[in-house]
Amino acid sequence: MTRLGLFCGAAALALAVPALADPITPKSGTLPSPAEAFPTEPGSDYYLANYDAYEKYLKTLAAQSDRMKLIDIGKSAEGRTMWTAVVSSPANLAKLDRYREIARRLAKAEGVSEAEAKTLAAEGRAIVWIDAGLHATETVTTQSQIHVLYRMLSGQDAETKRILDETIVLFGHDNPDGLQLVADWYMRNPDPKDREFRTIPRLYQKYVGHDNNRDSFMSQMPETTAVNRVLFRDWYPQIIFNQHQTGPAGMVVFVPPFRDPFNYNYSPIVMTELQEVGAAMHSRLVSEQKPGSGMRSAAPYSTWHNGMVRSVAYFHNSIGLLTEIIGGPTPEKIPLIPDFQLARNDEPLPVAPQEWHLKDSLEYQNSLDRAVMDYAARNRERLLMNIWRMGDQAIARGKRDSWTITPNDVDAVKEAAKGKTAEGGEVYFRGPPPVDSGLYKTVLQDPAKRDPRGYVLPPMQRDTPTTIAFLNALLKTGVDIEQATAPFTAGGKRYPAGSYVVKTAQAYRPHVLDMFEPQDHPHDLEYPGGPPKAPYDITGYTLAYQMGVQFDRILDGFEGRFARVTTDQLTPPPGRLLGSGNAGFIVGHETNNSFILTNRLLKAGVPVSWLDAPTKAGSVTFAPGALWIPATPQAAAIIAQSAPLGVDAYRVSRAPKAAKTALKPVRVGLVDHYGGVMPAGWTRWLLEQYEFPFEVVYPQTLDAGNLMAKYDVLVFADGTVPVQRGGAYPGGYRNSMPKPADIPADYRAWLGDVSKDKSVPAIDAFAKAGGTVITVGSANALASMLSPAIQPALVTKKPDGTVAALDHKQFYIPGSVLSASVDPTKPLAYGMAPRVDLFFDESQPFVPAAGATPIVTFDSATPLRSGWAVGQEKLKGTVAVAEVDLGEGKLFAMGPEVTQRAQPYASFKLLFNGILYGPASAAAQ
């Protein structure tokens, strides 16, 4: 029996809850209503339907309704089928392929004239995506979707019929595994008053939990890939409605529009249409006397970051909607917050304090869904025409000189205007003074600052498999990529056949620019002269930088013999066997995939070493860290079988003379705790992808000591070590720890936290006996406890003698990409280039200190590459990554988040090298 099998009686337990006197959704017609199909009607107090029951109901509806078609869009991380219900009129369902083709042609816009677009828009149907369950503990969305579906399939009113005739609605479920986990956990207790899901034992998506809504442009998780395929490769909806919880305190629901900042890469049409839909949603609630909706300043949500389901939509010319509503199966109370009782633009109809039930949220969610569908039905042709206009305009901009104005450009105009008087013009009432209009041409349209016409990625990359992974991320989000079939010239440079080309003359130009160009986030303050206003999520994430891809920006038009990539995903060129000789093989350390090969060899018991000095093989010079693999039939077979990794091996006739570090099979302990820590989950996924052997370790195991008997390496991801609030290391994650008696026995060993009194002495003993400890991000609070050589650099002393991180007015870098210097002659940095772009999210660098060898350092006063930085000059001279000897073992302290959301491939080697180097160093002693 699986652990979740402990809760298989959830449906039976639901019978203990008395049924409501009247159903939430009355029966209409012959289809089974939610009250008939479930043991307790979804939306009732103290009841959650799980995915098994939801799936069964979808299949029942699809079998009996001529308004619905059920499609399989992929598998979840745990192998469940992800179903999407396609709802429309029977006549429309009979022509789905035609309507999908119309949507594709209008969204991609390529080769479609305005006249043809008008014809297609007149024929086509508006397509709307409405999802549920992405964040599984946000339970309103799935339970309400059951009712919304039934009402759409059974309704005979004029609005329902208009929606069915004019639109095609895709009702998707983003996270089947999470729904099953959360609903079963909630329903496990026979007494309804004991039901809760605050204390679920693990993340509600197998690896990343809540971060499943930060994976949209990277598309690492299978659920994200499935949804992206629907949105940008198969169906091309004009509206993408991503439903969430919870609403602002003292309100019921947040509904768009959003606060600034506005991302300058996407079309302004997307934002003006978003405001239209948002107004329709608010108006519907207000007209139905459903109070408590807020917008803009009512919540921190913005439209800057590309990584979320509703925000990646903007960069694909679709209207991305987010709602955040209160409610759940356990009744709650809306509190009285006096300031929210005064009607204002951002909260037009305040709500009174009251008891609130899941069925109340369900009715709000139904109104919001209906408002969106009704808007799409009434504006069908305009939605279809405008998605074509945005795509057509993007293609046109990519074919001519164009400029994207960023905050730095505006600052440059202001600087250039100093001391100059504007000719003519009056100051508008309370407006800023005008400046010389000529600066528009000389500064804002400086020819050197033109947007690229495209990007060229030469085939000879430092890490070709990683470049292929980058291109695949673009393909998964619908970007058009070409490959040169013959040499060509662009920007005055000659490129060989096989080069990849990503032109900006395509409909998804905003997404292309956002993945290649640096983000320039506005200097957003709470008030003039005040502290920075925290962004919603991160500010800089340029994927090409994070992945270390080599590319050239081409500012002028260029052509060549290019073939469109039509495969679903690219694969690296197969690894080659080069050279001659029978002594052994040398493999470069530059590719991340070389770690997969290394792990396969070690697992098979094949000797593998790192060459600690530059080594030549024929005409090739290998940098320090190249793999040396003595020739054996087994080694040759594994190398040949691993050719799909794209890693070349060089045969040589004699063993290299360079000093070697012999590697050994490693036993990795990845530290996590009850409830799951997202960075640990991302790290778990990474270790699986690169075939590192590991097991998850919980604090009780650490506290028990004798760690060398089980592990060679302990990895502490960001957030796995408790940090002091207001202390030196910002961040950290805090989960509710239940009482052992309140959870099944299988999970009790997961309880606890890393503690100074019990855990640290055991970890210290482990390291001094030869173990390796790796700490990342806020987990460096542990590093500082283990070694006085690791001390936070950007701190201030408090009156009690302790230290705190600098306040945000002095130093603030919220999720950005920074440039740093690397010493690739050190084993921890083997295979890296002399410079690396690091992801940095309110991280804490270290003071240079005796006993700590700097591996990565900030050597510039202006390290910002993408994002936003206040006080970045304070980083100069600090250490980002350090190596410390602890007895016979090693401590590797990594201040920045080197594996952040499985995106910064350029810094993965720091973790991977540490896992192999620490045990190898200890064994050599």
Summarize the structure.
The protein has 925 residues and is α+β, with helices and mostly antiparallel strands. It has 26 helices and 37 strands. The longest helix is centred in the middle third of the chain and has 21 residues, at 358-378.
Tally of extended strands? Answer: 37
How many distinct helices? 26
Give the CA-CA distance, first to last residue: 45 Å
Structural class, please?
alpha+beta
| Overall radius of gyration | 29 Å
| Overall geometric form | globular
Mean pLDDT: 95
Largest sheet: 10 strands, mixed
Q: Could you estimate the helical fraction of the residues in percent?
A: 25-40%
Percent of residues in beta strands? 15-25%
Query: Any low-confidence stretches, pLDDT <50, length ≥5?
Result: 1-20
Question: Could you describe the 3D structure shown?
Answer:
It is a single chain. Helix 11 (268-287) packs across helix 13. Helices cover 30% and strands 17% of the residues. It is built from 26 helices and 37 strands. Residues 1-20 have low confidence and may be disordered. It is an alpha+beta fold. Strands 26, 27, 28, 29, 32, 33, 34, 35, 36 and 37 form a ten-stranded mixed beta sheet that branches. The longest helix is centred in the middle third of the chain and has 21 residues, at 358-378. It is globular and about 85 Å long. Strand 21 (615-617) and strand 22 form a beta hairpin.
